[in-house]
Amino acid sequence: MNATTTAAAALLTAFALAPAALADNWTMTATADNFYNIYFGTPTTTTLSVGGGGWPTAGSFTALSRPPTDYLYVEAHSDHGVGQGFLGTFTNTTLGQTVNTDLTNWDVFPAGAYLPQLGYAFTSWPVFQTPTQSQVDAAILYATTNNLWVAPSGGPGYFNNVGSPVWGPVGSISPSAQWIWYNSNGSPNPLIPGFDHDEFLIFRFKGFVPAPGSLALLAAGGAIAGRRRRQ
Question: Residue 21: what are its φ and ψ, rounded to 5°?
Answer without folding.
Answer: -80, -15
